[in-house]
Design goal:
106 residues, mainly alpha
Length: 106
């Protein structure tokens, strides 16, 4: 079972990395598709860290394509997950991403 779990984690990671490659090529729709697939795999394994990670990446992508409400939602999911895991450096990373990519509300 452990070997299967490791195999599934590797596939999920590679899937997300394909999303990163598409992001770098500015093929944002494809990046989102791969991030969503990696997220689904992380959720199936209850991999809380990577669930948060892919939500954060999705937040960046949705902000990039100016879907700000969806971006904010993804960031909030990532933030809540990292807070639950008590990973302060990642909580701060999500907050910085939100400040850099979302329009400021006065």
């Amino acid at each position: 079972i452990a070997r299967d779990n490791h195999h599934q984690r590797s596939i999920a990671s590679l899937t997300g990395n394909l999303g990163n490659s598409y992001r770098l090529k500015q093929a944002y729709t494809q990046a989102i598709e791969y991030y969503l697939a990696a997220l689904k795999m992380a959720q199936a394994m209850d991999d809380k860290y990577n669930i948060a990670h892919w939500h954060n990446n999705l937040g960046v992508m949705y902000a990039t394509i100016r879907q700000y409400d969806t971006a904010r939602y993804q960031y909030e999911l990532a933030l809540a997950q990292y807070q639950a895991l008590h990973i302060e450096r990642m909580v701060q990373a999500v907050i910085v991403n939100m400040e850099l990519t979302l329009p400021q509300v006065d």
